[in-house]
Task: structure prediction
Amino acid sequence: MSKKSPRFIFVVSTAGSIMNQVLEIASIREVIHSVVADQQCPAIEKARKHGVPVTVFDVASNDEFCDELCKYMDKHDIDYVLSFYTKFYTEKIREKFKDRIINFHPSLLPAFKGMDGFGDGIAYHTKIIGTTVELIKDVMDEGKIVMQSACAVEPGQAKETMRHRIFVQQCKTLIQVVQWIKEDRLTVHGNNVSIRGAFYHDIEFSPSLESKEAIKLEIPGPAPHASATGLKALA
Result:
């Protein structure tokens, strides 16, 4: 008997730009069961345009949302969460789905935690920016690191251009991590996450990209005079 393919959901709160981009890829779309939102947000309409079912739990508190999400995941036999949720999950759901809630953060954790990791890094004049994929633990942005990407901050480069580079890296790492999970290559030992058979020869991504879809992904950058509002929409 063949092993069941893992089933994923997106949990979203905001624009859903990364979700929208990766849903263009068949290998991602085929493992996405649905999208769950905690409020009305632009991500909902984007998901529906891809034909992905959407459920909104617009409830009064984070505790209520996480309770509803937990029941939803049980009911629909969900294996993993691809998280773009702006609040922190309750202890109950963190324990029940331990090492299965995947967060995508726009900085090289543990540096620049919080809601604007990219902006905080730029404001600090860091010389390297990047992204982190983590399995959430008990403290926000202090999870088990699965994969990271990095790029140099070039003097004089527009903030919009740098943010777009991070956006592309986040899309690529999501595609890659989903592939590793589908191939059953991700192993967790305590706080260490390892990828069986991974390579480490790339200076931009660690572990290195293997997914053909991730490697070839190209996303046109912002116009030269992109607005600050456009930056926020990349969440």
User: Anything to note?
Assistant: The chain has one domain: 8-232. The domain at 8-232 is CATH 3.40.50.170 (Rossmann fold). The beta strands are 8-12, 32-37, 54-56, 80-84, 101-105, 128-135, 144-152, 186-189, 192-195, 205-206. The chain has nine helices and ten strands.
